[in-house]
Amino acid sequence: MAKPFRLYICSDIHASERTWRKLLNSVKANVYKADAVLIAGDLTGKALIPVVRDDGGNTWTATLLGQRRVARNERELEELERSIADVGYYAVRVSRDEHAAMDRDPELVKQRFHEAIERRVADWMALAAERLEDSNVPVYLMPGNDDEFEIDPILDQSTYCRNVNEQLVELTPWHQLVSMGWSSPTPWSTPRELPEEEFLDRLSDLLRGVREPRKTVIMTHVPPYDSGLDTAPLLSPDLRPTVTAGDLLRGPVGSTGVRHAIETFRPVLGVHGHIHESGGERKIKDTVCLNAGSESSMGVLRGYVVDISERGVERTLRVEG
Predict the structure, then answer these.
(1) Are 295 and 305 in contact, with CB atoms under 8 Å apart?
(2) For 202, what's the count of Cα atoms within 13 Å in the CB-facing half-sphere?
(3) What crossing angle do the helices spanning 106-131 and 17-29 adopt, rounded to 10°?
(4) 3-class SS shares of the chain: helix, strand, coil, % to 5
(5) What is the pLDDT of residues 114-142, one digit of tens each?
(6) Which DSSP state fits 5?
(7) Is the confidence at residue 245, as pLDDT, over 70?
(8) CB-hemisphere CA count at 13 Å for 24?
(9) Residue-by-residue DSSP string for 225-246
(10) What is the mean pLDDT of residues 256-279?
(11) 310 FRET partner, CA 20 to 30 A, in 148, 163, 169, 217?
(12) What is the C-alpha separation between 229 and 293, in angstroms, rounded?
């Protein structure tokens, strides 16, 4: 009997430099003895942090997580920028005049933000190729709903990582992988959202192309609806958390399309992300579904190790580092 194929699964790294480097280090050292790595979307961050130079040019200031930070020399400036990158934000050095111009012009902010996103993704793909040059552990990844479309050509050009969004690829000696980085609608109108019916149509078209549904791994950024992997605070129309009797209301926010596809095609394994606080393992009929969860803003790499064989999922283990 052939030994099981081991997957390392994670998601929602959200531009955290510390978390990405932890991932590459774990793959290079093969800490988890994985045969392949799956990253279930949301590679990029959500905020641009101006690092403002004073008029004399010797001091730089920034506000990070509500705290004013000051750098008085190049070493402190590099440390400040590294702190910003480690929580998943993008530092941009600006003069006071440039900062004032950004305050006046949202389009200028958007331009600088997109430039920073593209630069970090390109740097990450280059770092993966450099660090993992001698590794034989493939990395399969895809964008998530928060990821702008500008990163797609960068991912496609990577010489090590493989962008598998909306693709069917061979994964293990027995299993194929179907991946879908889009999400069902969210309150924030993020870049990659589809109405549930269109989402289900695209996902079902991919799944119809597999050799054998029960020997298929499905990776969707958004988890299946009401699975326990999609529990999040319920929001009011003005996007504030709903509170009743002093308690925060939570409920399912996943995709009915993903759930329907899983119930219809019965893949052996579902790999998901998107809802950071709902990491865990559940079963939908006979499909094992996993959400690794995310704490990337704290520099914590959350993941799952999964052993899978011709017989199915042999073992799952939640890990972090």
Answers:
(1) no
(2) 17
(3) 10
(4) 30, 30, 40
(5) 999 999 999 999 999 999 999 999 999 99
(6) E
(7) no
(8) 20
(9) TTSSSSEEE-B-TTSPBPEETT
(10) 97
(11) 163
(12) 9
**Strand extents, DSSP E, the chain:** 5-10, 36-39, 48-53, 60-64, 67-71, 90-95, 139-141, 161-163, 168-170, 176-180, 216-220, 231-233, 243-244, 247-248, 250-252, 269-272, 280-284, 287-291, 302-309, 312-320
Structure tokens that stand for 26 in this block:
């774990």
| CA 118 from centre of chain | 15
Percentage of residues in the chain having pLDDT higher than 90: 91
Compute how many other C-beta atoms are within 10 angstroms of the C-beta atom of residue 126: 14
Task: Report residue 179 as tokens.
Answer: 């991946």
Q: 5 and 172 in contact (C-beta within 8 Å)?
A: yes
Give CA–CA dist 124/121, Å, rounded: 5
Distance separating alpha carbons of residues 224 and 288, to the nearest angstrom: 12
Task: Yes or no: say if 265 and 168 are a contact pair by the CB < 8 Å rule.
Answer: no
Nearest partner of 261 among 302, 210, 317, judged by Cα: 210
DSSP 15: T
Q: What's the token pair of residue 70?
A: 């000051």
Separation of alpha carbons 234 and 248, rounded Å: 8
How far apart (Å, rounded) are the C-alpha atoms in residues 5 and 98?
A: 52
Q: Does residue 72 carry a pLDDT above 70?
A: yes
pLDDT of residue 239: 73
Cα-atom radius of gyration of the chain, to the nearest Å? 21
Give the Cα-Cα-Cα angle 204, 280, 250 (nearest 5 degrees). 90
* Mean model confidence pLDDT for the chain: 95
Cβ atoms of 289 and 160 within 8 Å: the answer is no
Q: Which of 3, 2, 5, 1 is CA-nearest to residue 35?
A: 5
Q: Are 256 and 184 a contacting pair, CB within 8 Å?
A: yes
Cα 134–Cα 20–Cα 39 angle in degrees, nearest 5: 85
Model confidence at 190: pLDDT above 80: yes
Confidence at residue 242, expressed as pLDDT on a 0 to 100 scale: 77
